[in-house]
C-alpha cells in the first residue's frame, strides 16, 4: 500500500468513516489490505492444518474457542461450523508460528477475521499478516514483553504531548498512587492485543479495524488518543483509583459521537516516523 498516494488514502478513509461498509465490501477491503494470495494461503494452510498439536495446546485452544464471541450467530453453537473453523485456523497458526505458538487473545482476532473472511485458508493468511507485517507478534511474544516495553511507554508519551492535563491526572492517581511504571497497562492491553474488541461498540470497532488495516499500527495510537480525549472531561472529574480504572476498562458501551471520535483520530494523524522516534527514546 506504500505506493498509493496519501491523498487517495485520505479519500478512502473518509469514506470508511462516513459509510457503513456492507459485509462483502468489508471482506474484499480487508483481503486487499492484507494482500492475501489465494494459492499461497491454501498451500500453507493445508501444510500446517494437517500437523498435530501438543495435547495441552490443543485443549487450551478448544477452551478459548468456546469463549470467543459467543453472542455472535457464527459462534453460538458449541462445536458448530464457526467454532470448528476457528479451532482449525488457530491450530494451523500455532503450528506455523513456532516462536509464539498459540496465546490467549489470538482467538478473538481470528474469530473476527473469520466472520468477514470466511474462507479458512484466507483467514489463516490474514492472521499471519497481522502478526508479521502488522507486527502483532511483537506484542504477544515473550509474555507480552513487547506490549509492556514498547506500547505502554509510547502511548504515554503521546498522551503527555496531546492530552497533558489528562496525562498528569492519570499519572498522579494511577501510577504514583500504586507505584506503577506505566499507568497505561491498567487499561489498554485489550485495546491493542484484541484491536479494541469489546472496548468499543461493534460497529465502531469494525471501523477501527478498517482504519488499522489501511494505515497500520499508528492508527491504533490515534484511536486510543481520540477515545481518551472523548472521555477526558469525565476522567478528570474522577479522583479515585478504582473509579478511574473502571471507567477506562469499560469503554465497550461508549455513548459519545462515533463519527466525531473517528474524525478526531484522523486529525491526530500519528504516523510511523513519529512512533519510531518515540520508541527509540523509550526502549533504550
Give structural notes.
The chain is an all-alpha fold. The protein has two domains: 22-132, putative rabgap domain of human tbc1 domain family member 14 like domains (Helicase, Ruva Protein, domain 3), CATH 1.10.8.270; 141-282, Ypt/Rab-GAP domain of gyp1p, domain 3 (Cyclin A, domain 1, Orthogonal Bundle). Helices cover 70% and strands 0% of the residues. Helix 1 runs antiparallel to helix 11, helix 3 crosses helix 5 (81-96) and helix 8 crosses helix 15 (272-282). The longest helix is centred in the middle third of the chain and has 27 residues, at 136-162. The radius of gyration is 19 Å and the shape is globular. InterPro entries: Rab-GAP-TBC_dom, Rab-GAP_TBC_sf, Rab_GAP_TBC_domain. It comes from Arcella intermedia. Residues 20-216 form the Rab-GAP TBC domain. This is Rab-GAP TBC domain-containing protein.
Give a short overview:
The protein is mainly alpha-helical and 284 residues long. The chain contains 15 helices and no strands.
Amino acid at each position: 500500500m506504500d505506493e498509493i498516494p496519501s491523498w487517495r488514502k485520505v479519500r478512502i478513509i473518509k469514506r470508511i468513516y462516513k459509510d457503513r461498509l456492507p459485509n462483502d465490501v468489508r471482506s474484499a477491503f480487508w483481503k486487499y489490505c492484507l494482500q492475501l494470495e489465494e494459492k499461497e494461503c491454501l498451500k500453507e494452510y493445508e501444510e500446517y492444518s494437517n500437523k498435530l498439536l501438543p495435547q495441552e495446546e490443543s485443549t487450551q485452544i478448544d477452551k478459548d474457542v468456546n469463549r470467543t464471541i459467543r453472542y455472535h450467530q457464527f459462534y453460538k453453537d458449541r462445536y458448530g461450523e464457526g467454532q470448528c473453523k476457528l479451532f482449525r485456523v488457530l491450530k494451523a497458526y500455532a503450528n506455523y508460528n513456532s516462536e509464539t505458538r498459540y496465546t490467549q487473545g489470538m482467538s478473538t482476532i481470528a474469530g473476527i477475521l473469520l466472520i468477514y473472511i470466511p474462507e479458512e485458508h484466507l483467514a489463516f493468511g490474514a492472521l499471519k499478516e497481522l502478526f508479521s507485517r502488522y507486527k502483532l507478534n511483537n506484542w504477544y511474544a515473550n509474555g507480552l514483553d513487547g506490549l509492556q516495553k514498547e506500547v505502554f511507554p509510547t502511548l504515554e508519551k503521546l498522551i503527555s504531548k496531546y492530552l497533558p492535563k489528562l496525562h498528569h491526572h492519570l499519572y498522579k492517581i494511577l501510577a504514583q498512587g500504586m507505584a506503577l511504571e506505566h499507568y497505561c497497562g491498567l487499561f489498554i492491553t485489550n485495546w491493542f492485543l484484541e484491536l479494541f474488541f469489546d472496548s468499543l461498540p461493534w460497529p465502531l470497532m469494525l471501523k477501527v479495524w478498517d482504519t488499522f488495516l489501511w494505515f497500520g499500527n499508528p492508527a491504533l495510537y490515534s484511536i486510543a488518543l481520540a477515545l481518551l480525549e472523548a472521555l477526558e472531561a469525565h476522567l478528570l472529574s474522577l479522583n479515585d483509583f478504582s473509579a478511574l480504572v473502571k471507567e477506562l476498562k469499560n469503554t465497550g458501551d461508549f455513548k459519545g459521537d462515533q463519527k466525531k471520535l473517528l474524525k478526531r483520530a484522523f486529525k491526530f494523524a500519528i504516523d510511523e516516523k513519529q512512533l519510531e522516534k518515540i520508541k527509540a527514546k523509550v526502549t533504550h
